[in-house]
Amino acid sequence: MTEAAPIDAMPTKQFFVDMLIRDIPLERAVLDLVDNCIDGAKRLRDPAGLDFSGLWVKIVLNEQSFVIEDNCGGFDIATARDYAFRFGRPKEARVTPFSIGQFGVGMKRALFKFGREFSILSKTHNESWSVNVNVDLWENEPSWTFGFLTADTNGNVPDSERGTKIEVSRLRPEVSSRFSTQWFQNQLSEMIRVHQRQFIAKGLEIRLGGTALTAVDLNFLTGTVTPSLEEYEEIFDGVTVKVKIVAGVGLSSPQTSGWYVVCNGRVILAADRTEETGWGRATPDNRDVPKFHNQFARFRGIIYFDCTSAELLPWNTTKTGVDADSPLWQRALEKMITSTRTVIDFLNDLDSEASDQGSAGPLAKALASATPTQADRVTQKAIFKAPDKERFSGPVMKRIAYSRPEAQLNSLMAALGLNTAKAVGEQTFDTVYRDKVI
User: Fold this and answer.
1) pLDDT in tens for each of the 438 residues of the chain?
2) Rounded to whole angstroms, what are the CA distances from 31 to 51, 129, 152, 188, 360?
3) Rounded-to-integer distance, Cα 429 and Cα 386, Å
4) Nearest to 113 by CA among 36, 183, 19
5) In whole angstroms, what separates CA 375 from the centre of its chain?
6) Longest dimension (CA), the chain
7) CB 57, CB 203: distance < 8 Å
8) Cα–chain center distance at 135
9) Contacts of 421 (CB under 8 A, 6+ apart)
10) DSSP assignment of 307-354, as one string?
């Protein structure tokens, strides 16, 4: 009996590329490339990400090409050969402590998603190399390798030239049309400001189309109200994951309220108000957390996960959400839900006060006297503490509302020399009170 040849289950390159790029939005693919720059900055400067001053990332995109360039130290030939262009991270690959690149797909996925030709030039202190890939030709070759265009291991590269430049051309039509719009560039700018806010705040300059981006403000009110802060550690196979949870209130803003999930400095979820972060779920003691609505527009919560080994953190491969099945996440989520419920109790009290007293109530006065404080500066362990009502209490105020014919109101405003219905109501009340009570 003749032995049959083995069945070939190797995927075609075209199928592999199409599947690789399908599940990530275009903006997120750009963020993945910025993440790689930040990992370079961590290798060059500070793994914990405390100081990135003097380092920069520049992005230029239009209907014809995409370019991202940095001065974050580059990566060497061995890394390019053995890891950077592999589809997935080999176990033996060198790991950047506190990295935000984890799965080994971000750069390749972005390049293939953007266009059909790309070039990469990278320089370290003593090496430089370049690669140029025509995707159409590569997909028709049997080999899955990329050849170096240049490779030099004998260089003495000046500090000012150490970094990486990536250029993608022959953009996909759907990518070209979006890159060309100001709307897309504005949206991308805001996403970078939010999701890389911690690195920008630590000195990394990120420019989009020549404009330096600022870190989005994320503030808690302090002073008259105290945010809760809890810190703890979990250990997995001898590796420590540090967790910090901060919950409190900020200025009323439905767009920025909710939970922020941060892994090794990278914001994974921003202003999340879904069940993923506990909204609409029950607390461990069976007290429901309501679904979000604008009554809770002051709520702010941040959970930080930090670990030298990125694979232990509870994020998905596209960094667009959490790994809901992670035991680390599940334990943290219980604490988040409890923190949410505590702050919601206060916001319910605030809403009840506002319906009766408006902005004249003691809780509203206390929040008006509070100090907006950047989230990174909230470092004192504490439980959430609502304002001291007694300190801001005055006479209990009640709201009066009634309607009268417009012609009569206008006549009375003219007679009293007033120009608002509210002023008329207040003055007529005070007049009657003096006549009938005092």
Assistant:
1) 567 777 766 678 888 788 888 878 999 999 999 999 999 999 888 777 678 999 999 999 999 999 999 999 998 888 888 877 776 666 666 677 888 876 567 788 899 999 999 999 999 999 999 999 999 999 998 888 888 888 888 778 888 889 999 999 999 999 999 999 999 999 999 999 999 999 999 999 999 999 999 999 999 999 999 999 999 999 999 999 999 999 999 999 999 999 999 999 999 999 999 999 999 988 777 778 999 999 999 999 999 999 999 889 999 878 889 999 999 999 999 999 999 999 999 999 999 998 888 788 899 999 999 999 999 999 999 999 999 988 887 666 677 888 999 999 999 999 988 889 988 998 999 889 888 887
2) 20, 24, 29, 9, 45
3) 34
4) 19
5) 13
6) 117
7) no
8) 32
9) 409, 413
10) -SSGGGS-B-TTSSSB-TT-HHHHHHHHHHHHHHHHHHHHHHHHHHHH
As separate numbers, helices (DSSP H) first and strands (DSSP E) second, the chain gives 13, 15
Backbone angles phi, psi at 201, to 5 degrees: -65, -25
Identity of the amino acid at 338: T
Beta-bridge mates of residue 151: 129
Q: Which of 183, 181, 107 is nearest to 146 (CA)?
A: 107
Tell me the pairing of strands 219-222 and 228-236: unpaired
Closest to 290 (Cα-Cα) out of 337, 243, 257:
337
Q: Which residue has the tokens 């289950």?
A: 9
Identity of the amino acid at 401 = A
How is residue 256 annotated by DSSP?
T
How far apart, in Å, are the Cα atoms of 191 and each of 206, 216, 256, 314, 325? 12, 9, 13, 21, 26
Do residues 297 and 257 make contact, with C-beta atoms less than 8 angstroms apart?
yes
**Where does residue 248 rank: exposed (0-12), middle (13-18), buried (19+ CB within 10 A)?**
buried
The sign of the torsion formed by the CA atoms of 345, 351, 355, 361 equals positive
d(C-alpha 170, C-alpha 16), whole Å: 20
Contacts 24+ apart (CB under 8 A), 428-436: 429/400
d(CA 191, CA 270): 9
The token pair at 7 is 């069945």
Cβ–Cβ < 8 Å for 116, 66: no
